[in-house]
């Protein structure tokens, strides 16, 4: 049977008080809309249509690579009006699954079960009972004595004080028989408090026609909470982070505190990984077995190999850290930093687009940019590669077992021969030979007979 999927994403999201269209706000590093698209992608090869309107160009740009098509709703006259716009594109029979772009954590299984409950003939609503139902559409039912079946949905703003006591709400997600859906939305009226065409009014139409209405309870609150305000977005973020943290704890990761953990992307972990409080992981991060991450590190798109230790307050992006390496505290690894096994990078050391071979060390206050560093090199405190001549970047190549003293400037392009030593305070602008000491600084002199100036006497 055909299943069409529609994601409504045309609304303004006034309560977000933001220039950005609501569905493009991010939850755990991914837009609300992308969360829903990733879920619909798991439902198989059904066509997904996104209804855009407010900020349409921006929203359409954001989903360009998703494979979903978009239909514009101009102006935005309500959720029922939104479905009117997409109706001509839907199949002639089967089921239409309608999702809200601002209900981001709906599970694929839940959506699938709802579509199955519809089966092309019933109207299936996803509902939930909330402690605080403020703002949501309420499920109005017949008295229990008469069977308690669903009679309709009344929007919060249109609800009577008695109806506002109802805690069973419509989650914004439904599966409707496509043929009837087209007919129902065409007949909607906007005679309500908001002057909008409410999709939710089709429920009473279905009841009037004797089409069975099934209200399926969502398996949990987090899956169906909507985002209408920054407060709700932050609340959902915490819930999602807690869920992710619990998943990691269950898989054996030792998080010091699941309430102080943020994952905005994907984290792959080996056995016996420890993560201290306040860390943020973004993009795709892989942590090998027995990796330890200290407090307050920010790690994005990185691979940290087995046994490496990242000390607190380190910032790692687009880098690879070899097995058993020691990084930080306060280290910064930028894109293209490739560190071999047992490398040590200490406090206030920045590494960019550089390869460090096994056992190389840069322990204090240094910069390595566009450098190739051999095994066991010791790179002194305060030394830097001058890799940029104002127009182009150049490489510095440091051979194995080299010692670079403190406060050196290596002016690229330059090669430091293997086993050589560069004296502290040197500015090296030409290649140095292997195995020898090179010093490039003014000679130290002592002036005999020099005296300190004396303070002039006050007049
Ligand atoms: C809607 C439901 C309400 C439900 C709630 C769940 C209606 C009338 N009400 O209310 O019963 O409890 O969701 O979260 O459906 N949209 C459009 N075009 C429009 C208006 C909205 O595409 O003209 C989109 C929005 O971008 C959003 C979704 O539809 O993704 C819901 O719109 P919103 O205005 O947030 O509806 P609610 O008042 O939350
Ligand atoms: Ca909403």
SSE map:
Elements: E1 3-8, E2 26-27, E3 30-31, H1 32-41, E4 48-52, H2 56-62, E5 69-72, H3 79-86, E6 95-100, H4 108-118, E7 123-129, E8 138-141, E9 150-154, E10 168-177, H5 178-186, H6 202-209, E11 213-217, H7 230-250, E12 254-255, E13 261-269, E14 274-275, E15 279-287, E16 292-293, E17 298-304, E18 309-310, E19 315-317, E20 320-321, E21 326-327, E22 332-333, E23 338-339, E24 344-352, E25 355-356, E26 361-369, E27 371-373, E28 378-379, E29 384-386, E30 396-398, E31 403-404, E32 409-411, E33 414-416, E34 421-422, E35 427-428, E36 437-438
Parallel strand pairs: 1-4, 1-6, 4-5, 7-11, 12-14, 13-15, 14-16, 15-17, 16-18, 17-19, 17-20, 18-21, 19-22, 20-23, 21-24, 22-24, 23-25, 24-26, 25-27, 26-28, 27-30, 28-31, 29-32, 30-33, 31-34, 32-35, 34-36
Antiparallel strand pairs: 2-3, 6-10, 7-10, 8-9
Calcium ion is lined by residues 102, 226, 228.
